[in-house]
Design a protein that fits this description.
The structure holds two protein chains of two kinds.
Chain A: E1 7-10, H1 16-30, E2 34-38, E3 55-59, E4 74-77, E5 93-96, E6 112-115, E7 128-134, E8 148-153, E9 169-172, E10 183-186, H2 190-203, E11 213-217
Parallel strand pairs in A: 1-2, 2-3, 3-4, 4-5, 5-6, 6-7, 7-8, 8-9
Antiparallel strand pairs in A: 9-11, 10-11
Chain B: E1 3-9, H1 18-29, E2 36-42, E3 51-56, H2 64-75, E4 80-84, E5 87-92, H3 96-106, E6 111-116, E7 119-125, H4 128-134, E8 144-150, E9 165-166, E10 171-179, H5 182-191, H6 201-214, H7 219-229, E11 232-240, E12 243-248, E13 257-260, E14 264-268, E15 284-286, E16 294-297
Antiparallel strand pairs in B: 1-8, 1-14, 2-7, 2-8, 3-5, 3-6, 4-5, 9-10, 10-11, 11-12, 12-16, 13-14, 13-15
Helix pairs in contact in B: 1-4, 5-6, 6-7
The chains are: A alpha/beta, B alpha+beta.
């Protein structure tokens, strides 16, 4: 296939609003399959709401909500991101070369979020079917109320991991500081090993799936228990 | 929301650039707090008995030179007075308690913002960019500073309610968040003779820490006690004459990011207000974790 020179957008010269308008409405007309974003300088809402099979490279650190609601696009951040990267992602891929602040991948319905460094608190909160792979550690209350999807943590997990989980499954290679209410460690089945192997394969990490622990819901909160006396 | 910023410049040769580096940080964080702003800067006033007192008077056209003359006449103390906008700077060997008494008797509309041998505090109402312009923050030279941009949620918008808050000498604190128990804390401190100037929640945290330090604790030990005693959300950035100290509460809902190079340590609520700093591309960047005490000394 003929390679297309990347379109380059410098956020020193163009507003984020203008950039996103270009990515939403003009990308087809420009027939650019790659877009490079320069000088992100921690700005918020970069490349939000994309719906095209385009590759976006962000050269530097981004602010809040990078790649939110992403569909189909592949977004690579060559730096760190602030709060809520890939929030509510539907499909596609967001890759962060540095670290991510809190709520990474919150409510993501699909796609893959790969953070090469660590993610801070509430990573994968309310996850709804997306996959998240974190090369480093995750902070406290990660995967809180996560409903579907997988969170793979190659480092350690902070306090209250998987509190009030639904059907999402967490795999942790390192130490778990503490489990949240109704989360429990379970044995790794063949299916789990295959899942972790497949997700690590997609990110290029070469840990052995056998080093990971599985954390899932004990399902004691699925039904109201009148005898529990609010003691969870 | 509110924004917090802090900067400590390591080599003495670069401290003349503090104002130039920190002013864009404050302008940018004006997005998080457009109501009012403040900045505390630290540079030693010199050897000997001299202290620097930052004064504030919101009355338009207030005659600071007249205050200086009256001060010398009434107290027989040496006084160097300079003023900009609503802010006066008095350098004098007078004891802080004597100055407070004299001010409340002779100039009750003048408020004492800070006292010490290093600290100087500016704060006022308005957009942070406009305040920085009015007070000439870009020209400030100092070893370190902390600043705040306020979006008021729990008490009035006034110069007195703006941050930084100070207590005692050469200590100040800025806060992003809100406390749930400032009034119980305050009642306990008032019983021990601690006086308050406003009904602001942050003032309770500031006076609590200063009271613990006056009782002999280090700031770090006082903060360990604060983790137990303070209820609410907070990222706190503090400074003394020698250091910057940063903490986040156990839930860490309020943001902070730190950038360190061989020239400086910079703290802000958001990375975008640090993006202009020299060498930022190769800075060591990290997000402080909950209930960890980060301290950088000169």
């Amino acid at each position: 296939m003929e390679s297309v020179a990347p379109a380059s957008v410098d956020l020193h010269k163009l507003s984020v609003r203008r950039l996103n308008h270009f990515l939403h409405h003009e990308i087809g007309a420009a027939s650019a399959s790659r877009v490079e974003i320069l000088n992100p300088n921690g700005l918020h809402n970069i490349a939000v709401g994309l719906d095209a099979p385009v590759q976006v490279d962000v050269r530097g650190h981004a602010g809040y909500f990078l790649g939110g609601m992403n569909r189909r696009a592949r977004i690579v951040v060559h730096g760190n991101v602030g709060w809520s990267v890939a929030e509510n992602m539907m499909s596609g891929e967001v890759r962060v070369k540095g670290f991510a602040s809190q709520c990474a991948g919150a409510s993501a319905h699909g796609g893959l979020l790969f953070i090469e460094g660590s993610a801070s608190s509430r990573c994968g909160i309310s996850l709804k079917g997306g996959d998240i792979v974190v090369g480093g550690h995750v902070g406290h209350m990660s995967a809180f109320m996560a409903q579907a999807g997988r969170l793979v943590v190659c480092g350690d997990a902070g306090a209250g991991l998987g509190d009030s989980l639904y059907e999402a499954v967490i795999y942790v290679r390192g130490k778990i500081h503490s489990l949240g209410a109704d989360a429990r460690e379970e044995p790794m089945a063949e299916e789990d090993l295959a899942t972790v192997g497949q997700l690590l394969g997609r990110t290029g990490l070469d840990w052995s799936p056998r080093e990971f622990k599985r954390v899932a819901s004990a399902k004691t909160l699925y039904h109201w228990n009148v005898d529990a006396d609010q003691e969870y | 929301m509110c924004g917090i910023i802090g900067l400590l410049i390591k080599p003495e040769s670069k401290r003349s650039q503090l104002g130039e580096w920190v002013t864009p940080m404050m302008d940018c964080m004006g997005d998080r707090g457009p109501d009012s702003a403040g900045l505390a800067v630290f540079s030693p006033v010199g050897d000997g008995p001299l202290r620097r007192f930052s004064l504030f008077c919101g009355r338009p056209g207030f005659d600071w030179m007249e205050l200086g003359k009256a001060f010398e006449r009434d107290t027989a103390c040496e006084a160097h007075l300079s003023a900009i906008e609503n802010h006066g700077r008095l350098v004098s060997p007078i004891a802080p308690e004597s100055l407070e008494k004299w001010l409340s008797r002779e100039f009750p509309s003048v408020h004492l913002l800070s006292t010490g041998r290093s600290i100087e505090v500016y704060k006022d109402m308005g957009h942070p960019a406009e305040i920085a312009e009015r007070y000439g923050f870009a020209g400030l030279a100092a070893s370190h500073c902390v600043g705040h941009t306020r979006m008021a949620t729990e008490s009035a918008v006034s110069p007195a309610h703006a941050h930084p808050f100070t207590a005692g000498e050469d200590f100040c604190l800025v806060h992003n968040g809100s406390l749930s128990n400032p009034w119980s804390l305050r009642r306990r401190l008032e019983k021990r003779g601690v006086d308050f100037e406003t009904d602001n929640d942050t003032e309770a945290a500031c006076r609590f820490l200063e009271w613990r330090m006056r009782e002999g604790e280090s700031l770090e030990d006082a903060l360990k006690a604060a983790f137990i005693e303070l209820d609410g959300f907070y990222t706190l950035l503090m400074a003394t004459a020698e250091k910057l100290v940063l903490v986040r509460d156990a839930f860490a809902c309020k943001p902070a990011v730190v950038a360190e190079t061989e020239d400086y340590v910079a703290v802000s609520s958001e990375f975008r207000s640090l993006a202009h700093l020299p060498g930022i591309r190769s800075a060591e960047l990290f997000e402080p974790v909950p209930e960890e005490i980060y301290s950088w000394s000169l």
